[in-house]
Design brief:
Blueprint: H1 8-14, H2 26-30, H3 40-92
């Protein structure tokens, strides 16, 4: 059997307390001024980067769709050619 020893300092800090933390009204949370160091520039840069990434992924998706259409077309042509040859051979017999 494995036993685990927890130092008494950790036991005291992990005990649950019955008092709820002080909560603030929602109106205070939404009417707080923005911190002095926050500026919209990093947010705008992230937004622009996100849009650029989305555009790049869209371009890749369109390229993959065109490639898929090309392979489907070639596959259909080869299938038709094969079936035609098979039919010709069957008619000769």
């Amino acid at each position: 059997m494995i036993s685990i020893r927890i130092p008494s300092a950790q036991v005291a800090s992990t005990s649950t307390s019955t008092t709820a933390p002080a909560s603030r009204p929602f109106s205070e949370l939404i009417h707080q001024p923005a911190p002095a160091d926050s500026s919209p520039a990093p947010f705008n840069a992230d937004l622009i980067q996100s849009q650029n990434d989305a555009y790049a992924l869209l371009k890749i998706q369109i390229a993959m769709q065109k490639e898929n259409q090309l392979f489907t077309m070639i596959s259909n042509i080869l299938k038709t050619r094969h079936e035609t040859a098979k039919s010709i051979i069957a008619n000769i017999r």
